[in-house]
Amino acid sequence: MEACLNAAVRKTPGTAAKAAKPARPTGEPALKVTKAAKATKAAKVAKAPAAGGVAAPKARTVTKADGKPVLKTARAPKATLPEAAAIPLPVETVEGAVRPAYWDEACADLMKRDRILRKMIPTYGPAHLISRGDPFITLARSIVGQQISVKAAQSVWDRLAAACPKLTPAQLLRAGVDKLAACGLSRRKAEYIVDLAEHFKAGRVHVDKWAEMDDEAVIAELTQIRGIGRWTAEMFLMFNLMRPNVLPLDDIGLINAISANYFSGEPVTRSEAREVAANWEPWRTVATWYMWRSLDPLPVTY
Question: Domain HhH-GPD spans what residues (predicted)?
Answer without folding.
Answer: 144-296
